[in-house]
Amino acid sequence: MRPPVTHHHPAQGAARRPSRILIVEDEKRLALSLAKGLTAEGYAVDVVHDGREGLHRAGEGTYDLVLLDIMLPGLNGYRVCAALRAAGHDVPILMLTAKDGEYDEAEGLDTGADDYLTKPFSYVVLVARVKALLRRRAQGAGASPVHVLGDLKVDTAARRVFLGEGEVTLTAKEFAVLEQLVVRAGQVVSKAEILEHVWDFAYAGDPNIVEVYVSALRRKLRAGLIETVRGAGYRLEGGR
Question: Is the pLDDT of residue 217 over 90?
Fold first, then answer.
């Protein structure tokens, strides 16, 4: 018998369907607090406290966003995230964890998470990240998911990249940076724009992190594919 799911629904009256958020968090007080806050923001929120149940619920495909703790009973957050991505689910995933450090963040993002927040975190920052991820998802909903530039093909729905006859494996952040460039192919995209859309405005680290990921993309794809426009940003060139 499956454990019950705690449902939190916003007040009725809104004409538009509220975004549905699944919270997978075993700290029950924190989960309840987040659920109450996000419900007050107008979201429909469900809460589960176990990794296996979280994977089952998220796999139903009815959620617009998943808040996923890493240290969970049943299955940890890394394994839940990896399983969802392997099954083809592209729901935005914001990982929550008490861990800290670049290795943990890299592991979380490499399993397919879209963003990462370390406890304790500001609730204001959490809401900002949630809104940014939902906005990014909505902006991509009406666009063609497959972009072809010469021998480069980027499928933003399946999150897969092909160069020539082969598939190129990218981390979640590498793909997110490439996506910003490919949807505006031929145009200059500034470092600030990439930071805002990929890391969001709450990012307080080194802005040169963009250069690191662009360099990684050049190594994995082709050196001349992404052009640096001095003082302006980057431009993805296709057709070569």
Answer: yes
